[in-house]
Structures are given as structure tokens and as C-alpha cells.
Design a protein that fits this description.
This protein is mostly helical. Among the domains are: 32 residues, no CATH class; 81 residues. The chain has four helices and three strands. Helix 3 packs antiparallel against helix 4.
Length: 228
């Protein structure tokens, strides 16, 4: 069987007819990145991405776990203050939003103006000249339509606004409950760890005392045997 060489998106490939195998002529070396083929760098093989000066292959030694944990907690709090607190405050302030209701009068005014302009343009297009009575009745009709549109629009907007605000309030409550559950869980874990440390310390003291007494007893027995 003959072999042909074809160009592919990741290099040249040798393709055998009938059986076969695909042998790449270009392979990325271990620990390196393949050439990106798009803006998202899809296909990267680089696992040495660093975060805060650290990476997966060279973590710093930890001599004080409590201090390290305190630094991690402080870093997370600073990240929350910088990136999320303003957004959450804006969500809390939006629970009494009235933007849908406030937009109704302007929308009704715009629709009324467009209706009048359309009627005027149609009269001019067809060369129709209305009488004073017709114009007065048309004006009253437009005013009635504007009043009905305003009343109906305000009613619908109030209902939609209330539903939207209640949904947002429910989401905020769920977020708060999630944070509360997480905090209580962490406090419970911290309390359990403190109890375990205290119990381990008491057990270590008891074992040390027992070993000391046993050693003293053994020394006394050996001394008594020697004197006899």
C-alpha cells in the first residue's frame, strides 16, 4: 500500500491506505504549550499556570498552618470586598425597583404621538380634509386611547414589577441562606477540630503520666532487686 502525506491543523500527517495509522510529524514536548489555533488558545498543553506566584509543582513550605489559614481567609475577604460587595449592594437596593412602572407614562406618550402623526400622514397622503367635528371627535378618541393605555400599562407594569422584585428578593434570601449554612458548617467544623485537639492533648498527657509512672516503677523494682 502507498502512503500519502497530508497537511492537517496540527502539522503534517502520514496516512497509510488500508490499515492504518496516523503518525504526526509534529508533537508538543512535555511541559510545553501547543501552538494556539484560536483566540481562546484551545488545545494548550501547559499545566504550569501560576496563581499568586505559586504553581502546582512548586508550592511554598508551610511552617505555621494557622497563620497560613488566616492569610487565605483574609485574601478571600479582600477579594469579596473588591469584586462582589458592590454588586450585592446594588442587588439589595434593586429589590424596591420601580423602573418598569416609571417607563409607562413616557411609553404611552410616545405611542399617542405616533398615532396622531400616522393619522395626519394618512390624511395628507390621500388628500382628505376633515371637518371640525371629525377633528374634535378624533382628538377625543386619541385622548381616550391614551388614558386607557396609561391605565392598562400601569396595571401591567405594577404586576410585572412586583413579580420581578419578589423573584429578586427570593434569590437574595437563597443567597443569604447559603452563606449562613456555609458559615455555620465552617463554625461547626472549627468547633469539632478544637474538641479533637483538646481530647488529643488530654490523652497525650495521660499517656505521658502513665509512661512516667511505669518507668519510675520499673526503676524502683530494678533498684529493689539490686539491693536484695
Amino acid at each position: 500500500m502507498g502512503y500519502t502525506q497530508q497537511a492537517g491543523p496540527h502539522g503534517n500527517w502520514t496516512v497509510g491506505g488500508g490499515t492504518a495509522g496516523l503518525v504526526s510529524s509534529q508533537q508538543a514536548a512535555p511541559g510545553t504549550s501547543a501552538a494556539p489555533t484560536g483566540s481562546a488558545n484551545i488545545g494548550t498543553l501547559n499545566y504550569e499556570n501560576t496563581q499568586a506566584g505559586y504553581n502546582s509543582s512548586s508550592l511554598p513550605p508551610v511552617s505555621d498552618p494557622d497563620k497560613t489559614m488566616a492569610n487565605v481567609a483574609q485574601s478571600q475577604y479582600d477579594s469579596y470586598i473588591t469584586n462582589f460587595r458592590d454588586f450585592e449592594n446594588a442587588l439589595i437596593a434593586a429589590r424596591d425597583d420601580t423602573s418598569l412602572i416609571d417607563a409607562v407614562p413616557e411609553d404611552v406618550e410616545t405611542q399617542t404621538r405616533l398615532a396622531k402623526e400616522i393619522a395626519e400622514r394618512n390624511r395628507k397622503r390621500y388628500g382628505y380634509t376633515s371637518t371640525m367635528a371629525e377633528e374634535a371627535e378624533a382628538e377625543r378618541d386619541i385622548q381616550r386611547g391614551a388614558a386607557l393605555n396609561l391605565a392598562g400599562g400601569l396595571t401591567n407594569a405594577r404586576l410585572a414589577q412586583r413579580e420581578q422584585n419578589m423573584q429578586l428578593l427570593g434569590d437574595l434570601i437563597n443567597i443569604g441562606q447559603g452563606v449562613n449554612r456555609s458559615s455555620l458548617s465552617q463554625l461547626g467544623s472549627a468547633g469539632e477540630n478544637a474538641v479533637m485537639r483538646r481530647n488529643a492533648f488530654e490523652q497525650a498527657k495521660a499517656q505521658s503520666k502513665a509512661q512516667r509512672n511505669s518507668m519510675i516503677g520499673s526503676m524502683g523494682t530494678a533498684l529493689a532487686a539490686f539491693l536484695i
